[in-house]
Amino acid sequence: MSQTSLRAPMGPVPDVHQAEAIPDAARAAIEALMQSGDLFRYTAPQDAPVALLEAEFAQLLGAKYALAVSSCSAALFLSLKALDLPRDARVLIPGFTFAAVPSSVVHADCIPVLCEVGENYRVDMADFEAKLDNVQAVIISHMRGHTSDMDAILALCAARDIPVVEDAAHSLGTTWHGRKIGTLGAIGCFSFQSYKMINAGEGGILITDDAELVARAVIMSGAYEHNWQKHKSAPSTETDDATGALQAAFAKWQNKLPLYNLRMSNLSAVVIRPQLPELARRVSDGLKNHDYVADQLNQSPYITVPAPLAPEKRAPDSIQFNLVGMSDDEVRRFAKASAAKGVKVQVFGLSEDNARAFWNWQFLPEQQSLPQTRAMLMRACDVRLPVRLREDELDVIAAIVLSAIEDTMEAAAA
User: Fold this and answer.
1) Contact, 65 vs 233, CB < 8 A?
2) Counting C-beta atoms within 10 Å of the first and last residue's C-beta, which end of the chain has fewer, N or C?
3) DSSP annotation of 227
């Protein structure tokens, strides 16, 4: 994009908060559900929409078991409880994540320990390794879909017998060496909130190959009495051994665990299920959109869009970039100029009370200093790029961001 084109008239600014339409198949399923009034996942004797979703999602990801719950936060909390960690266990998380992640750790009666994150938004491996010997579990947030060095993380944790939970809220469809993110650790957790690849407004799901872990999570999610019998493994993994292991684990934990009632309703499930076949197309469109805009933004000397790591194939529905060579005041003026033109740029560290800035997590039992992460967040920007956007709409977004940068820096020079 030339300097001249930045001053050229732009088309209408797309609404980046509008999600892709829910498939028509969901509407028929919703109507049938409304007619039956059967919204609770355990009313039907078998094959309730939530149970079908769990089986289909597990099969899609290549996992043995899935548990659908009320949110990804609930999935993270249940993961920690399923691991049977002692009270005040220390759980290592990246310093760049959403406040729901440390909140889930606190909710599980554990203590979040934060590690540094680099300018590429990924875990700083030196700081991660330095802090690893004093923790009992790890949650790796693939924040905004950026995958940290999972080879190194898994090797370091395996050597210490430390379980890894993947917060894959932003990474449904991402792969690492061709393996699906969420299947690398002991448990993977995903989100169906409206700004994710699959949209139910709210909702979450966890996956695992460990019958003991899923049995504990199922019971604690709210499977009272013998409702756990309505949970089963993915169709592709159903064998006598898998079924027997699951039933034995359920029987072992019957009445021995508290119920937190974090269940998903059938209404959410019928909204989600017709979107599963759309995932591959959405992932492809999202990556294409991201790279198209990244190529334009990287033309500015004041912007860098971090490249993916070599084993990573991303599934983005937003773009993050760092501002280079700009003061705090210039960064603020840029964000204000871009918003005035119609594109909201979130600067993680300069947005007031941002839930992704670790210093705003005042509920932490232990406050921690992360100078490298703080410096990154003061220049790290975020713009939504829904996968439904057309190329001409992406051009408008990129042109507004670049012209806001140009206006800001020309004013600074003057």
Assistant:
1) yes
2) C
3) G
* 400, 342 Cβ separation under 8 angstroms: yes
Tell me the H-state helices in 186-327. 211-222, 240-253, 266-272, 279-297
CB count within 10 Å of CB 25 equals 13
3-state secondary structure 123-146: ECHHHHHHHHCCCCEEEEECHHHC
pLDDT tens digits in sequence order for the chain, 414 residues long: 434 344 444 789 999 988 888 999 999 999 999 999 999 999 999 999 999 999 999 999 999 999 999 999 999 999 999 999 999 999 999 999 999 999 999 999 999 999 999 999 999 999 999 999 999 999 999 999 999 999 999 999 999 999 999 999 999 999 999 999 999 999 999 999 999 999 999 999 999 999 999 999 999 999 999 999 999 888 877 777 777 888 999 999 999 999 999 999 999 999 999 999 999 999 999 999 999 999 999 999 999 999 999 999 999 999 999 999 999 999 999 999 999 999 999 999 997 899 999 999 999 999 899 999 999 999 999 999 999 999 999 999 999 999 999 999 998 888
Residue 109 host element (H or E): none
Looking from the CA of 363 toward its CB, the CA atoms found within 13 Å total: 12
| Complete domains list, the chain, with CATH | 24-277 (3.40.640.10), 278-413 (3.90.1150.10)
For residue 246 the two structure tokens come to: 């699951």
Write the CB contacts of 349 (distance below 8 Å, at least 6 apart in sequence).
357, 374, 376, 377, 378, 379, 380
Percentages of the chain per state (helix, strand, coil), in multiples of 5: 45, 15, 40
Q: Is the pTM of this model over 0.90?
A: yes
Residue 41: alpha-carbon gap to chain centroid:
24
| Gyration radius from the chain CA atoms | 22
**120-141 CB burial, b ≥16 within 10 A, e <16:** bbbbbbebbeebbeebbbbbbb
CB 318 within 8 A of CB 385: yes
How far is it, in rounded angstroms, from Cα 399 to Cα 379? 20
